[in-house]
């Protein structure tokens, strides 16, 4: 399937892409599905090719080395980290310091949320794209102006600079607050390391991106077993916004795929690691030195899949463009500047023209 075939954008056919008519999970539980309901059926050019090549060479970054007091060890780790951000745009993070018990509790409690009755979850149906808590289904639009619903139940929570969380299950708030707080600290260290690799002053970068008031959101995705996985998607090809997305996947369950030079590769994380995606705003700020990876999620017939992603951006009021010292060094800016909040809103309100918003921000000389 071509990367531009679908877009996670709204269209004139509906006010916004969120809805909550019935969760995928409750539909699967209430009937013995043998065929995919039509609203979830995506077929372009007679099929939906979700094949991918197994990948053994995805970079592995040691976070403990990245933050080491040993200058030689840290210098080597920073170089490897910068290489992973420039080459793949996605990598595995090991020795990250996030307690395994905390990650397990997060995933288990999020799974409990998705098991709540639909009537309880429906209170979080998105009224707008800026709603602090949104739960439900997600519609996408194809380049042929058709819409379909992803085979996915989702929960999105804004966690910083203001913290929000559903009231049930009861432990969720405390777990999410601790987890996202730890992730923010980790991301600030990673931004500092990438600043070092670009020979930028860390204080300049933190101020330019307003990291103390950075926008952070947690996105949980639940994909039940699918009767016809080759006819639908869990998530269409897309780039993440922001700086870094930190992804926890229960039991390393397969389904995430990344595009590299037009070929899809499976991202199968080893135990006790996080998956990190480079965001569009880091690509823009680095003037192209870092590359945001295009990725998608496919579903399967045999088992459910659960993943929790924490997206970490700049401050909402930051006009994000290439860093001034890098523009001076490169002789030109390769990306247009745009206010972060406007960029986020444009993801859902812009008319889809076959190009991603990141593509539109690139300046071609």
Automatic annotation (TrEMBL):
Coiled coil regions in record: none
PROSITE patterns assigned to the protein according to its UniProt record, in alphabetical order: FE2OG_OXY
Key words of the record: Iron, Metal-binding, Oxidoreductase
Keyword Repeat appears in the UniProt entry: no
InterPro entries, A to Z: DIOX_N (IPR026992), IPNS-like_FE2OG_OXY (IPR044861), IPNS-like_sf (IPR027443), Oxoglu/Fe-dep_dioxygenase_dom (IPR005123), Plant_2OG-oxidoreductases (IPR050295)
Record has Magnesium as a keyword: no
Gene3D superfamilies per the UniProt record, alphabetical: B-lactam Antibiotic, Isopenicillin N Synthase, Chain (2.60.120.330)
GO biological process per UniProt: coumarin biosynthetic process; response to molecule of fungal origin
Occurrences of domain Fe2OG dioxygenase (ranges): 213-314
Family: Belongs to the iron/ascorbate-dependent oxidoreductase family.
Official protein name in the record: 2-oxoglutarate-dependent dioxygenase 19-like
Gene source species: Salvia divinorum (Maria pastora)
């Amino acid at each position: 399937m071509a990367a531009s075939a679908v877009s996670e954008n709204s269209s004139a056919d509906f006010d916004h892409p969120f809805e909550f008519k019935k969760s995928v999970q409750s539909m699967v539980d209430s009937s013995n599905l043998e065929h995919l309901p039509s609203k979830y059926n995506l077929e372009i050019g007679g099929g939906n090719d979700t094949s991918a090549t197994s990948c053994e060479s995805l970079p592995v970054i040691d976070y403990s080395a990245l933050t080491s007091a040993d200058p030689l060890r840290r210098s080597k780790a920073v170089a490897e980290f910068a290489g992973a951000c420039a080459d793949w745009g996605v990598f595995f993070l090991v020795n990250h310091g996030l307690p395994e018990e905390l990650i397990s509790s997060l995933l288990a409690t999020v799974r409990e949320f998705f098991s709540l009755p639909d009537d309880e979850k429906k209170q979080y149906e998105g009224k707008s794209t800026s709603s602090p808590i949104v739960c439900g289904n997600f519609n996408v639009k194809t380049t042929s102006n058709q819409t379909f619903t992803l085979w996915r139940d989702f929960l999105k929570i804004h966690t910083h600079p203001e913290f929000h969380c559903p009231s049930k299950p009861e432990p969720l708030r405390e777990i999410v607050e601790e987890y996202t707080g730890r992730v923010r600290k980790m991301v600030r260290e990673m931004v500092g390391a990438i600043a070092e690799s670009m020979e930028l002053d860390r204080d300049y970068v933190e101020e330019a991106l307003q990291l103390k008031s950075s926008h952070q959101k947690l996105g949980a995705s639940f994909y039940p077993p699918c009767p016809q996985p080759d006819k639908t998607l869990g998530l269409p090809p897309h780039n993440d916004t922001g700086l870094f997305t930190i992804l926890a996947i229960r039991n390393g369950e397969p389904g995430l795929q990344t595009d590299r030079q037009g070929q899809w590769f499976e991202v199968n994380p080893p135990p006790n690691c996080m998956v990190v995606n480079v965001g569009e705003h880091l690509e823009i700020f680095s003037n192209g030195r870092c590359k945001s990876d295009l990725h998608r999620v496919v579903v399967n017939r045999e088992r459910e899949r659960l993943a929790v992603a924490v997206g970490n951006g700049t401050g909402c009021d930051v006009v994000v463009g290439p860093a001034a010292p890098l523009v001076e060094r490169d002789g030109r800016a390769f990306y247009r500047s745009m206010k972060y909040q406007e960029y986020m809103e444009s993801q859902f309100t812009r008319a889809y023209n076959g190009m991603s918003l990141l593509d539109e921000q690139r300046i071609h000389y």
